[in-house]
Structure formats: structure tokens, C-alpha cells
Amino acid sequence: MMKLKNDRFLRALLKQPVDVTPVWMMRQAGRYLPEYRATREKAGDFMSLCKNAELACEVTLQPLERFPLDAAILFSDILTIPDAMGLGLYFETGEGPRFKKVINTMADVNALPILDPEKDLGYVMQAVRTIYKELNGRVPLIGFAGSPWTLATYMVEGGSSKDFRKIKAMAYDTPEIVHALLAKLTQSVISYLNGQILAGAQAIQIFDTWGGNLASNAYLEFSLAYMQQIVNGLIKEHEGRTIPIILFTKNGGQWLEAMANTGATALGLDWTCDLGEARLRVGEKIALQGNMDPSVLYANSQAITKEVQRILASYGKGSGHVFNLGHGITPEVNPDNAAVFINAVHELSARYHS
Ligand code: CP3
Known about the structure:
Catalyzes the decarboxylation of four acetate groups of uroporphyrinogen-III to yield coproporphyrinogen-III. This protein is of the alpha/beta class and 354 residues long. It has helices at 8-13, 34-43, 46-51, 53-66, 80-87, 106-110, 117-120, 122-135, 148-157, 165-173, 175-199, 216-233, 256-260, 275-282, 301-315, 335-349; strands at residues 72-73, 89-92, 96-99, 141-146, 203-208, 237-238, 241-242, 245-249, 266-268, 287-292, 321-325. The structure holds coproporphyrinogen III. Coproporphyrinogen III binds at residues 26-31, 40, 46, 73, 75, 77-79, 96-97, 144, 160, 207, 209, 328.
């Protein structure tokens, strides 16, 4: 087992005492960093960067060279799974992800393979192994996948969507097709994440970016039920350590109790819910991660520091909080402001831990 030099991220997830509140940022390796843009240029396009273990490792470590972050996250994308299932992922500049093939019918679903991580997504496993080795115990490595519902939205819509017209029509019209797709994705996500754990991922985050767009009951049926199966199916312990699972449903504030009942280790919160209230609701059961509005990073240092202070005070004393943004950092943010944010979390949180 690799000894960790900084394990406060894992400790906070397990609600063990910490010296200061740990912090990382969703999308911490990304276009707001000039060194990321340079490496991406070198790789050619985004998928070539994901498929090159050395370069994926390089960009994973870039934010850690700049900032005292408490975790690293695998550089990859949630859409590697549908790509490996044969849908043909590509990125149109300025338009986000697109698929050459889309899912329209039960026959389309039946034709999808169940993935074998080493065989079908070997480049991701290789990236995890390379990053784990290169980190050399500096901080824990987070592995991730999209939730089945979130992946299904891209596979049925053929890319990003504003209204989810096709998949919602399908969910109400022919729910059996959507359930068959979700069941297949769930199998693939479980083996993909277990592959990442065996390759060196020390915590797992499930990105349910679009679950919060569902009707209250439909969320339980189409998103949470499958995330529950994933929680049940993941390796619980590896090399003597618990593998924490973080469930992040963007706009998921109304379902915190149901999410906490899955047996996950932590819930990721976006900025639309109040952290203190969330702690009162589910904090006995589960750790919380979040939840500063990424737009705060467009403001001045004083405003950023004030917002960090407000969120720390809202959670209050004791362990069980991992500081993060409520969603990914955006490409227009000045990296100096990210530094202000991360340093403020460490400096201002010491008094909440004794
Ligand atoms: O957090 C990290 O630093 C790890 C890397 C990571 C990426 N994507 C890199 C990426 C992670 C965890 C993701 C997850 C992801 N990908 C999600 C869920 C999280 C979320 O943000 O809601 C989703 C929905 C996707 C799908 C996806 N990938 C979209 C919609 C886009 C285009 C968005 C945009 O900003 O252009 C991507 C591309 C992508 N994934 C980029 C990065 C750094 C930008 C690609 C580039 O370099 O141009």
C-alpha cells in the first residue's frame, strides 16, 4: 500500500479529524490554465489528450504544481464509455461533445456491448496507473464516471441538450427502452470504476450532471436507482483502505435524504443548496462536498475570501466537509483567483478543527 503524504481528503470523507478542510476543484485540470492549453495543443484534440497516458498524467498534475490541492482527479471524460460502446465521440469546436451514432430504438440498445475496462478502455486504466505512480502518494487520486442517466442523455440526444426532448419523450413513451439502456450502462460503469480502483483510484465520484433535470419521482426511478446499483457494486476496500464514493447530482438538493440512504460516503452539492441546512438534514449519515458558485472566482480576492468564510461557517465545526466548487471551474477564470480560493480554505478553516 502506497503511504499518503496528505490524506486529509480521505479523512474528511470518512469524517475522521483533520487539521484543515481539504479542497479540490471540479475540472481543476482545464482550459483556465495556460499550461493545459499548451499540452492540449501538443496532443492535437481533446480525445487524443485523453488517450495518451503520459499527457493525461501531465495535465492531471498541472493544477497540483500551482496550488496546494488536497486531491488529484483523473484527467479523462465521462463520455469515454459511450465512445467505447461504439457511438463515435467527437468534439465540434465551441459546440461540445457529439456522437456519430445515437440511440433511437430497443434494437440500438440491444446492439450495445457491455464493456470490459482493460480491453475496451485500456487507455483510461493506463492513465490511472501512470498518474498513481507519478503522484507517489502526494495526495489521493479520484477516479470517476458519469451516472447512467447523464450518459444516456448524451447517447439519446447525440450531444449536449437544453431541454432533453428526445430522452424525456422516450422515458415517458417507452420507458422500457430507457431502462434497458440504463441497465446496460450501469453494468459498464461498475466494471469501469472497479477497473479504476484496481489501477490506483483511491476515491470515486459519480457525476450526475443531468439527474436534477428530472421530475421529483422520475429522478428516483431513472437516476438514483441506478446509482444505488453502482454503490452496491463497487469494491469497498482496496489495499487496506476504504474507497469513498461521492454522489454528485447537480441541482439535487431536494433528494439529499434519498441519496444519503444509498450508502454512499459523501454527497456533492451545487451552490443552490445551503450547506448548513444540508448538514442538518443528512450530516449525521454522510460527508458533504461543495459548494461555492464557480462564478465567485470572477470576483476580487476579498469577495472570494468572504464567500469561503461564509461557507465554512455554514458547515460549522468538525470534520465531514470537503470544500469544492458547486460545479466545474470555467475556462475564463484567472488562475490567480483559484489560488486565492484554495489558500483561503486552508487558512480560514483551521479554527473549525481542533
Ligand atoms: O475535473 C477534472 O479536472 C477531470 C476531468 C473531467 C473532464 N470532464 C475534462 C474535460 C471531468 C471529471 C469531466 C466530466 C464531464 N464531462 C462531465 C460531468 C461533469 C460536469 O461538468 O458536469 C460532463 C457532462 C462531461 C461531458 C463534456 N466533456 C462536455 C459537456 C464537454 C464540453 C464542455 C466544454 O467546456 O467545452 C467536455 C469536454 C471536456 N472534458 C473538457 C475538459 C477539460 C474541455 C475540452 C477541451 O479541452 O476543449
